[in-house]
DNA sequence: TGCACTTTCAACCCCTTGGTTGACAACACT
DNA sequence: AGTGTTGTCAACCAAGGGGTTGAAAGTGCA
């Protein structure tokens, strides 16, 4: 997944209203009116938010009878999960590498009484 | 984790430059100059990006000798992971619930030849 | 102390964004 | 066919964000 795509996804989630929408959509599909109900903003504003989420691929609005439904798309969450997992793995590796470095310094100290001068 | 906090975290990642910084920091700590090197922007701009990442808790700059180091903080990634995991779980539950609904409709059809009139 | 480098602060510019209102197209339903 | 709801488009406004430059603190070291 490209950097720009990731940025767009994160950007879509960079707003409390949209996070709330996503949270509620996780419980099931909703019409735009149902979605908009709790917010004190115009319907057009809600459509704008929806547009952002849709462009990021977080949400879809499948064709159908008139009060069209808004549906959470889960694939993007999988992509985000993979992305985050990469950092956790790298971080773990770094820590274990750090541990082994510290361990070898420990050994060097025992051998030479000075670990700092080692190249 | 509050909605606003999540929004701030996602907002910090809603920029290709900052995503790139995070990606590179996953490989290890770096000084600001090292971080800034690949980008064609002023050092001040890089500090601004760093500030955003720091405010979101994604990065820290532990006190130390002058060319201070920038370090990726992993806890926030854990929080993000938990957050995303919630949606995946809810989505799974909904799907399995949907499956059971479909299955029961199937059964009703076999029994009554019409599942739509069931209350 | 003085010099170089790192870090921060402030002002400014331009473009994006979250929100508004108003108008209008597209559906569904009697 | 006509009417109310749903969905979209456009113009506008205020605020925020990414970038710049310039200047000023802090910090490390010969």
UniProtKB/TrEMBL annotation, chains A, B:
SUPFAM superfamilies in alphabetical order: Winged helix' DNA-binding domain
HTH arsR-type domain location: 1-92
Pfam families (UniProt xref): HTH_20
Protein source organism: Actinoplanes sandaracinus
Name this polypeptide is given: Metalloregulator ArsR/SmtB family transcription factor
PANTHER family: SLL0088 PROTEIN, TRANSCRIPTIONAL REGULATORY PROTEIN
